[in-house]
């Protein structure tokens, strides 16, 4: 064990505004090594932090109890960062592993999220199938961002086909090492949310 | 003195929360902002005192869990007790949404403006 209490305190971390009162969430989902934490780091006001959620089966709402042996507990770690958007609004970015075995936790952890970014690696698109399926199932708005790993990429049309994306789901290229590029991905998600809202209002 | 941590065995975390696995109230989101309303005092559980020191400015639940190196569920139990005792106040997300819902236009516009200014 490290950490006397004084060392635990985030002395070096930029504090939030005293008036901060509205926390928002965006989730970045993707397979191992796809660049989730790098993206968080690129845009976050603070160095990414890591924490974990433990979930026991008892009393929780799970889609599929068969996946969890009785009274077992499962632990999943995730990274996060934050961006102070104004003196009241703070946007938290969560990097979430997309593996199937973690999804029952995300259902609970990320309820109320604005939307999700599915970060994909051109060479390992199949890693994203489950996450996309799950987001669609939960009707969580999302966009897909292909991280640039060099090499000769597929066309975006090929990627869209491979992921079987609905035509209205935005698919964009990015380089998560770049702050500007990561910022553009976040903006693309929020613009997508606005379009969805406008479309919904027009159909009501 | 060291804090209980998430590397500890489950028995110690169990002791830390008096054996409970769920908070007395289920009102804490990951991004609920917590503000200390009391000074750390002698005799307080060390984690409570630590939370009060870190919440002199607003801090999200998930940051508190990370700083204490505790699972979020355990941090929520501690915070729930502190809320009951009047030691903290909480600022809930204003756009608490269901998974299938969308936020309001004003919120989205704020987010866009903030992101473009980054």
Automatic annotation (TrEMBL), chain A:
<comment type="similarity">
    <text>Belongs to the GPN-loop GTPase family.</text>
</comment>
<keyword id="KW-0547">Nucleotide-binding</keyword>
<keyword id="KW-0378">Hydrolase</keyword>
<dbReference type="InterPro" id="IPR052705">
    <property type="entry name" value="Gliding_Motility_GTPase"/>
</dbReference>
<dbReference type="InterPro" id="IPR027417">
    <property type="entry name" value="P-loop_NTPase"/>
</dbReference>
<keyword id="KW-0342">GTP-binding</keyword>
<dbReference type="Pfam" id="PF03029">
    <property type="entry name" value="ATP_bind_1"/>
</dbReference>
<dbReference type="InterPro" id="IPR004130">
    <property type="entry name" value="Gpn"/>
</dbReference>
<protein>
    <submittedName>
        <fullName>ATP/GTP-binding protein</fullName>
    </submittedName>
</protein>
UniProtKB/TrEMBL annotation, chain B:
<protein>
    <submittedName>
        <fullName>DUF742 domain-containing protein</fullName>
    </submittedName>
</protein>
<feature type="compositionally biased region" description="Basic and acidic residues">
    <location>
        <begin position="1"/>
        <end position="12"/>
    </location>
</feature>
<feature type="region of interest" description="Disordered">
    <location>
        <begin position="1"/>
        <end position="20"/>
    </location>
</feature>
<dbReference type="Pfam" id="PF05331">
    <property type="entry name" value="DUF742"/>
</dbReference>
<dbReference type="InterPro" id="IPR007995">
    <property type="entry name" value="DUF742"/>
</dbReference>
